[in-house]
Amino acid sequence: MKLEILENFRKKIAEGPVFGPFCKTGDPAFIECAGYAGFDFAILDTEHGPVSYESMQNNIRAAEVSGILPVIRTQDFSESSIGKALDIGALGVEIPQITSAEDAKTAIRHAKFFPEGERGVCRFVRAAHYSATERSEYFKRANQALVILQLEGRKAIENLDEILAVKGIDIIFIGPYDLSQSLGVPGQVTHPTVIARMKEIVDRCASLGITVGTFVDTPETAKMWRDAGVRYLSYSVDVGIFYEACRAIVENARK
C-alpha cells in the first residue's frame, strides 16, 4: 500500500475540499493523466463501469505513479466485492446503496481486519506486496484504507441518524442522481427538494464532524456544495469529460 498517498490525501481533505472524477475507463493512461492534471483522487468504478478487477490493478498502479488516491467503487457491500478491491491495492472503497445501520456495519466489517472487522484474510495479494510485507504490518496498514459509504435514497435519509452512529465511517457520499429518483424527480439533481434533502445530510454530518462528499458535473454545483461544506467532490466522469472536450474542439474548429 502506498500509505504516503493516503496520508497526503488525509491532510488535503482536512483542509478541504478535494476533487476527483469517477472513472469508467480500462486505460491506465486516463488515470495517470488525472493525477498529473492535479486531481486528488479517482473513483475507479466497478458498479457501473465495465472494468474487471484484473484490469483495475493497472489503474491503481497508474494512480500510484501520478500520486492520485485510488478509490474503488464496489459493486455492492458484499465481502467479495469489498475484499477484492482492497486486495488489489485500493486505498479506499466507496460502497453504494447503503440504506441502514446494518448495511453500514456490514460494509465496515468486510473492509477491516480484526479487531475492527472480519475481512477475509489473504497475504498473497498485491496490497501485501504478494506476501513480501510482514503480516502484522500488512494488517495494520490495511485497516487505514478509507471507507466511504454512499447514501442514495429516501430510505437512507429515514435511517440517517442510525447510519451516522456507526463507527468506522470516513466519508458519507451523497448520490444525487439516485436520490433524485427516489424523491420522484429522476435526474433533476438541482431540484429544490433534492437540494433540501442533501443539505439536511450535510448539516447533520457537520454537526457530528463527519466528512461529506457528493457528485457534481458543473462549476456552479461544485461551488454550491463547496460553499455548503462538502469536502469530497467527485467532479464528473472521465468519459464525459473526454466527450465534452472533444465536442468543444470540434465546435470551435468549425466556426
Commentary on this structure:
With 255 residues, the protein is an alpha/beta fold. It has a single domain (3-253), classed as Phosphoenolpyruvate-binding domains (TIM Barrel). The protein has twelve helices and eight strands. It has helices at 3-15, 28-37, 53-66, 79-87, 101-111, 135-142, 154-158, 160-164, 176-182, 192-208, 219-227, 238-253; strands spanning 18-23, 41-45, 69-73, 92-95, 146-151, 171-174, 211-216, 232-237. The protein has an eight-stranded parallel β-barrel, surrounded by eight helices. Helix 4 (79-87) links the parallel strand 3 and strand 4 (92-95). The longest helix has 17 residues, at 192-208. The N and C termini lie far apart (49 Å).
Write a brief caption for the model.
This protein has 255 residues and is α/β, with parallel strands linked by helices. The protein is 49% helix and 16% strand. The protein has one domain: Phosphoenolpyruvate-binding domains (TIM Barrel), CATH 3.20.20.
Would you state the CATH class?
Alpha Beta
Please indicate the percent range of residues in DSSP E strands (runs of 2 or more): 15-25%
**Could you say which structural class the secondary elements and strand pairing correspond to?**
alpha/beta
Order of helices and strands: HEHEHEHEHHEHHEHHEHEH
- DSSP helix count? 12
Q: Assign the CATH topology.
A: TIM Barrel
3D shape: globular
Under CATH, the homologous superfamily reads Phosphoenolpyruvate-binding domains
Distance between the amino and carboxyl termini = 49 Å
Write the layout of secondary structure elements.
Layout: H1 3-15, E1 18-23, H2 28-37, E2 41-45, H3 53-66, E3 69-73, H4 79-87, E4 92-95, H5 101-111, H6 135-142, E5 146-151, H7 154-158, H8 160-164, E6 171-174, H9 176-182, H10 192-208, E7 211-216, H11 219-227, E8 232-237, H12 238-253
Parallel strand pairs: 1-2, 1-8, 2-3, 3-4, 4-5, 5-6, 6-7, 7-8
Helix pairs in contact: 2-3
